[in-house]
Structures are given as C-alpha cells and as structure tokens.
Specification:
By secondary structure, the chain is of the alpha/beta class. The chain is built from 14 helices and 20 strands. A hairpin with a 2-residue loop joins strand 15 (about 345) and strand 16 (about 350-355). Helix 3 (about 95-115) packs parallel to helix 4, helix 3 (about 95-115) crosses helix 11 (about 360-365) and helix 4 (about 135-150) runs parallel beside helix 5 (about 170-175).
C-alpha cells in the first residue's frame, strides 16, 4: 500500500483535467491508491537475503501455527490484454514441465526449512492459469504438498481456472485431489467487450465449467467480473452480473480495470480512448452492486459479494473478515508462504517475494537455495497501521479509542476531516464509520493511515 510522507493520500488529477472540470469526488475516484491487500505494500519491498528469510521461518512459526500456502503458476496459453498479473504466454510443454520440477523442488526446500507447525489451513493455486500443469502435474504438486506440509482438518483447497481451458477430465482430477473452491474469470459476457480485451469466451463455456465443478462436488464457486473496460457501459456490467447470479455463484468479485501500460506493456493493446471515465466507472460499480444485491447477494468490503450463508458473508457479519494478497478471505492463518516465481508470502515479522523471472527462479532452486529476492521487515508501527487499514477495508468502521493507536489516529485526523466534509466518513465518540456514499472510496480512507502513500503511486490503480 502506498502513502505520502505526511501520511495522507495524494490524489492524482487526471491528465488534461482541472478541478473545475471534475467534481471533487471524481478527483478522489481518479486518485491512484493501493488496493491494500497488504500493508506496507510490495512497492516498498527491497532486497531480501535468503539467510534473513530462513531466520524468519525458523523464529516466527510456532508449533501449532496454521499455514496458508499460495502457489503461483506464471503461464497462460495466451495473454489477456487487461491482465496485471505476473504471467506470460506459452504453449511449450517442456517449459511447463521444467517449471513444475522447480516448483516441486522449492516446496521440498521450504518444507525442510520450516520448524514444527500446525499444517496447511488454506492452499491457493493462482496465476496465470494453474490448470496449465494438467491433471498429472496437479496430482504431483498437491500430493507433495500434502505429504510434506500436512493438511489440517477442513482445509480449503482453491484454484483459479480459465473456463476456456477446462474440461471434464480436469474437473474430475480436481474433485479427486480434494479441491473445495474454484474461481473462474468471466470479466464481461458481451462478445464485443471480450474482443476489446483479448479474451473471447462464450457464456456457454462459463456455464459448462460451473456445471462440471458442481458435478464433481466442488462446493465453492467464485466468479470474477470487471468494470471500467474499453467500450463497457452500465448495461454490459448489469447483464454480466445477472448472468453470474443465474449460475448460482457462491461468491463474486467485481474488480475495476487498472490500466497501467507502463508497468504492463501488453495493456497497450487496449484502446485507452475507449476506457470509461471516472463518473462512468463509479456508475458501473454501483450498478453491479445493485444487480447482485437484488439477486440476494451480500455486499462485502470494497468489491466482493457472497450468498448470505457463505462463510465469507458470515465472517463479515461477525467482524472476522480478513484481507490478503488474494483479496477478501476467511483465512486467519498467521503465516502465508509463497511458492513459485514472483509469489509473495507474509510472516509476523515481514514479507518475502520470490524471484520473478522463472529461469532465475529455477536456477536458484536448482542450486538448493530458497528463491527469495525481495521483501520487507515490518515494524510494530507497520503492524498497527496494517490492522487499522484491514479493519477499515473489511468493516468500514474503526475503533478510535485504541490506546496503542492514539498517535497514528491523531496524525490521520486532518486528512479524515477532508473526507468527512465530502460526506465519505462520519466520526462519532470513539468511532469512525465509512458512510454508504464513502464505501466506494474506502481505499482513500485507508490511505489516511498509510505512512507511505506516495511511494510507487504510479503503479497503483485508480481508487474507483
């Protein structure tokens, strides 16, 4: 997450627009601020030695601590133009097999480096397209992780899937391996919008993927939608939301497209002139929420929705919703370990990220080294600010009477006052609440507690 030197969020005015041209809330919507899936954010990471990481592993994991594992597979058959993930296209079976071998070797090295622990509570395979490993590759990976790390009772096994590359044999394999949740990228169901973002995916493919998942007993199905895409209008977003609801998804995420062609050169294939402006983006996000709430979903946090009986909705109602690199989650494990090129993990004392380049990653693993490259040791103040930001992002409210947070809260008050004048937050005795109007701007509210808001701001997406 990014912050200014004075601790506040620095709104970035759109090029070519003046304050008179945009209402103040639209200027706030156009500001570039972190998504706050961690604090501090990866923009602040610096070099991290393997010896330091090994020491963190040895000293910061207790015998009963649950582990969360994120496994990154950085390949797709083809690259979608909107994507901001660390992934690259390949159709080379040899390249994929070599990567799998390195991944298995890293898992062995990491398992050997750990002290006694409580086993895996959450396993998430992301990418890229993890299913590109194929049924046998997934069997080898999941089998090794089960054997070397152990699974806790009731552990969640989740995977991200491309409906275009999903079939009955793969579905059967996922059911056999014990996967409990799958996330499918939908983005938008309109063929013209799909053409504009380089991902043509008929609705029938998505519906069939959901059917196959249900047929093999995978009870948790997540769908991802997007707004702010080129040529997209409210009607497109509404139709996609209704379609997702009719498929009976348990959870949905509705993300705003982040156009960052400087950081992701393939996004230059998207016609920037066709991107919706700030007012249109806000209207699209609000329309998606109206459609999904009308369909019976509960709105959670910034951009997630769940059925009322879903564990995510229950956690939100009970104040237990969490936020990590995968977004909103029920994952309360104190340790998240990243496996694979570019994967990020977090421990009580800091963050660690692996080498991004898969060849350098494989070379490091082949030499018997944990492939960590970057990271950040966190301070007690970082942890305090992280807890305040997480509660704001999850609960839209904050206890202002926390004695240990008095100095941080006092420093944030001038910036909060500016948002209060906009009607985005409300302060009462000992409590800060994000108003219904302000929920769309919660990243801006969280930035008031961010000591590094300006660092790497060019890499952040716009607030709404």
């Amino acid at each position: 997450m990014r912050r200014r030197k004075d601790g506040g969020a620095a709104p970035v005015q759109p090029a070519g627009m003046t304050d008179a041209a945009l209402p103040s809330r639209l200027l706030l919507a156009e500001a570039r601020v972190p998504r706050y899936t961690s604090y501090p954010t990866a923009a602040l990471f610096g070099p991290l030695e393997e010896t330091t990481y090994r020491r963190w592993l040895a000293e910061q994991i207790g015998p009963g601590d649950a582990l969360s594992l994120y496994v990154h597979v950085p390949f797709c058959r083809e690259l979608c133009w909107y994507c901001a993930c660390h992934t690259r296209p390949t159709r080379s079976a040899a390249r994929i097999e070599a990567y799998l071998a390195a991944l298995l070797a890293e898992a062995g090295l990491l398992a050997a480096a750990l002290p006694a622990h409580g086993g895996i509570a959450h396993l998430h395979l992301g990418g890229g397209t993890p299913s590109i490993l194929g049924p046998e590759g997934l069997r080898a990976l999941v089998g090794l992780l089960r054997g070397r790390f152990g699974l806790r009772a009731g552990a969640e096994l989740a995977i991200e899937l491309d409906p275009r590359l999903f079939d009955a044999p793969l579905a059967g394999a996922l059911g056999e391996f014990g996967f409990t949740r799958a996330s499918l990228g939908v983005q938008d169901i309109d063929p013209e919008i799909q053409r504009r973002i380089g991902r043509v995916q008929p609705m029938e493919q998505v519906a069939e993927a959901v059917r196959l998942l249900r047929a093999v007993g995978i009870g948790g199905v997540n769908l991802d939608l997007m707004y702010g895409l080129p040529g997209q209008a409210e009607a497109h977003v509404a139709a996609s939301a209704r379609f997702a609801a009719t498929l009976g998804a348990d959870r949905l995420a509705v993300f705003g497209y982040a156009h960052l062609p400087g950081a992701r050169p393939h996004q230059r294939a998207i016609d920037a002139a066709a991107l919706p402006g700030a007012a249109a983006r806000m209207a699209q996000a609000e329309r998606a929420e109206r459609e999904l709430v009308a369909a019976g979903y509960v709105a959670l946090g910034l951009d997630h929705f769940a059925r009322p009986g879903d564990a995510l909705a229950i956690a939100a109602a009970e104040g237990r919703l969490r936020r990590n690199f995968q977004g909103y989650t029920t994952d309360a494990a104190p340790v998240l370990l990243g496996l694979g090129a570019s994967a990020i993990g977090s421990l009580p004392g800091g963050f660690a990220q692996n080498l991004v380049d898969e060849r350098r990653y494989a070379e490091a693993v082949g030499a018997g080294r944990l492939p960590v490259a970057r990271g950040l040791a966190v301070t007690a103040e970082d942890r305090l600010r992280a807890s305040l930001i997480e509660r704001l992002m999850c609960d839209f409210a904050l206890d202002l009477d926390r004695p240990e947070a008095a100095a941080v809260i006092r420093d944030a008050l001038p910036r909060l006052a500016a948002l209060e004048r906009e009607g985005l937050v409300r302060r009462g005795p000992g409590r800060l609440e994000v108003t219904p109007l302000g929920r769309r701007f919660v990243r801006q509210v969280a930035a008031c507690f961010d000591a590094h808001a300006e660092a790497g701001a060019a890499r952040y997406s716009v607030a709404v």
